[in-house]
Automatic annotation (TrEMBL):
It comes from the Bacteria. NCBIfam families: FPPsyn (NF045485). Belongs to the FPP/GGPP synthase family. InterPro entries: Isoprenoid_synthase_dom_sf, Polyprenyl_synt, Polyprenyl_synt_CS, Prenyl_diphosphate_synthase. It comes from Methylocapsa polymorpha. This is Polyprenyl synthetase family protein.
Length: 310
């Protein structure tokens, strides 16, 4: 397969996964209560749908689904695990945009959830999506084997929680108030938690669902860590080089808020070099296990995160 063909295949698969994820989120966020639920408040459900539907590349679901596909696993349960992960991501964006955190008015080219509804609703939308994500992951409809479900739930909790995404958000807030210059080592740790943890989980979850052996899990873990790091460096660079129209959110805010970024810590050129090295490391990791020969689309994902424009 030529590079052009691989890129076309990646773009096609990314679009397919985005559509499938959108469709399942639409169904999961329907008005009918599930067994054990009493009622779904209409305005609140509208806000949850606003925060979750109609936007985003769905990169995290894509990574989960494509990793599982390496092991021949393609079914509704895999899509459910991917949709649950996307709920976690969407919740994090809703909370990240709040006035107490990044205070953003625009997300994906439209008003943020607290602007479209109100701040209290946005807080509860995040809470609702976070809780529902674990509901979906733990449901037998996601996997018949309770051991697989428990492994997914535990891994997702660790990635999203105290020592993962939330812990990274705390470090991010602390860094904004720090009077000293941001040190590269501290920024790398922060980004591995705040952004990298969920991207790494996406790959890990696909390996869990695919019942990958230890060697495959290790190689995929290396891939996930490198890709997650490359994604965030690319994000830092885009905040400097892109504009609001391309990003769908306010550009240039990192420097304004003294954000801990690798552009601030290393400089723009060194940040670009690190991004490209991390992308190459992610690709190399996929060559170290037997299924790696089939991982063309995942390799293109690593190239995509380094070259994306939004």
């Amino acid at each position: 397969m030529t590079h052009g063909e691989a890129t076309a295949e990646f773009e096609s698969r990314l679009n397919d996964v985005a559509a499938s994820t959108e469709g399942l989120l639409d169904r999961l966020l329907g008005s009918a209560p599930l067994p054990g639920e009493t009622a779904r408040p209409p305005r609140f459900l509208e806000a949850m749908r606003y925060a979750s539907l109609g936007g985003g590349k769905r990169l995290r679901p894509f990574l989960l689904i494509e990793t599982a596909r390496l092991f021949g696993v393609e079914n509704e349960g895999v899509l459910r695990a991917a949709a649950a992960l996307e709920m976690i991501h969407c919740y994090s964006l809703v909370h990240d945009d709040l006035p107490a955190l990044d205070n953003d008015d625009l997300r994906r080219g439209r008003p943020t959830t607290h602007k479209a509804f109100d701040e209290a609703t946005a807080i509860l939308v995040g809470d609702g999506l976070l809780t529902y994500a674990f509901d979906v992951t733990a449901d037998p409809a996601t996997h018949a084997d309770p051991g697989i479900r428990v492994e997914l739930v535990l891994s997702l909790a660790r990635a999203a929680g105290l020592g993962g995404m939330i812990g990274g958000q705390v470090l991010d807030l602390e860094a904004e108030r720090a009077p000293e210059a941001h040190k590269p080592e501290a920024v790398i740790k922060l980004q591995a938690m705040k952004t990298g943890a969920l991207l790494h989980y996406a790959v890990k979850a696909g390996a869990i669902l695919g019942k990958a052996d230890a060697a495959a899990k290790a190689a995929l873990s290396d891939y996930g860590h490198a890709l997650g790091a490359a994604f965030q460096v690319a994000d830092d660079i885009l905040d400097v080089e892109s504009d609001e129209a391309a990003l769908g959110k306010r550009a240039g805010k990192d420097a304004d808020r003294n954000k801990a970024t690798l552009v601030a810590a290393l400089g723009l050129e060194a940040a670009r070099e690190r991004r490209d090295k991390l992308s190459a490391a992610a690709i190399a990791a996929l060559d170290s296990f037997p299924q790696g020969a089939k991982a063309i689309v995942l390799k293109e994902a690593a190239r995509f995160v380094a070259t994306r424009k939004s």
